[in-house]
Specification:
Layout lengths: L3 H29 L6 H8 L3 H7 L3 H15 L14 H18 L1 H11 L3 H28 L8 H21 L2 H6 L3 H13 L9
Helix pairs in contact: 1-2, 1-4, 1-6, 4-6, 4-7, 5-10, 7-8
């Protein structure tokens, strides 16, 4: 009879070792680039033997796919679209941005490695779209459509608006990775979150002033 506790411990050890290797790979990929990085260097950062890496990942491509899967699984949990209080679109967007910025800070090196490779690797680009972009777009489009139908926000094209918002945050991430000092200093601040929310919901129109 299989001991379930033993199996569970083994699965936790495997998961922890995979995370350890993926963290090391992300660091090396971010520093040297995907193609210049070697599994020997990754093993040194992870403090494991090079052979240990191949026990869990068949190739450098598998490491990158593992990182991409981790990004997709934890980037924006679907549960956030099912919580109470979603009737306030402004508050919901603020919460979404706060979660997104925290996620980026915790996974910056992984995102840097993934984003740099998808620019030149078609297979990785397709996986990124399938695992990360398309699920988010689908969930947010549905959310916006409901908000429009119930009159909580003005009439907008949900598909296009979702892409505008996704592109806005992707652009901010790109500037952060490039080392923009202002974004680095304010990335998780209330000031940046509030400013971004205000920009999205109020735009750049002039304020009305009383006479």
């Amino acid at each position: 009879m299989v001991n379930q506790k033993t199996v569970a411990r083994r699965e936790r050890r495997i998961a922890a070792r995979k995370e350890q290797i993926l963290d090391a790979a992300a660091q090396v990929f971010a520093e040297k680039g995907f193609h210049r990085a070697t599994t020997k260097e990754i093993a040194a950062v992870a403090d494991v033997s090079e052979g240990t890496i191949y026990n869990y990942f068949g190739s450098k491509n598998d490491l990158l796919i593992g990182m991409m899967t981790r990004v997709g699984d934890s980037q924006v949990p679907p549960e956030i679209f099912e919580q109470e209080g979603l009737d306030d679109a402004r508050e919901f967007y603020t919460t979404l941005i706060q979660r997104r910025h925290t996620f980026v800070r915790q996974n910056k090196s992984i995102l840097q490695a993934v984003l740099s490779e998808i620019l030149t690797n078609q297979e990785m680009r397709e996986r990124y779209n399938e695992q990360i972009v398309e699920p988010f777009l689908s969930m947010f489009e549905q959310y916006l459509s409901v908000q429009v139908e119930q009159g909580r926000i003005r009439q907008v094209d949900a598909e296009l608006t979702t892409r505008y918002l996704f592109a806005l945050n992707l652009g901010l991430l790109g500037m952060l990775i490039l080392g923009d000092p202002l974004l680095q200093s304010k990335w998780e601040s209330d000031e940046l979150t509030e400013s971004l929310t205000e920009f999205v919901f109020d735009g750049l129109g002039t304020r009305e002033t009383g006479e």
